[in-house]
Amino acid sequence: MSILERIQAEIDGHAIVLFMKGTPQYPMCGFSSRTVAALHEAGARDYRAINVLEAPEVRANLPRFSNWPTFPQLFIHGELIGGCDIALELHEAGELSRMVAEVAAS
Prior knowledge:
Layout: H1 3-13, E1 16-20, H2 30-41, E2 48-51, H3 56-66, E3 73-76, E4 79-82, H4 84-92, H5 95-105
Parallel strand pairs: 1-2
Antiparallel strand pairs: 1-3, 3-4
Helix pairs in contact: 2-4
GO molecular function, one term: metal ion binding
Keywords: 2Fe-2S, Iron, Iron-sulfur, Metal-binding, Redox-active center
Pfam family, one: Glutaredoxin
């Protein structure tokens, strides 16, 4: 399985996937930390977090796969939502909570 197929399998296999630097318990950058906080405040508890610092092949290929250059990258229901700024904007507008609730209901 190629790295792009592995990335697609992660996105297909989990309703919410966060490709981040570090882990939700120990984020290794401020952007990842703020995105995790927004997800938690929005009610997300069961999501897949992938530490790109421990997966250099994912870190190298995900920007090409998603056409998004930076980390973290948040996917919900297979769709790229964006990075930290977009996740925070959606959270402040109440949209992230709605999206997380839809995932929980499905």
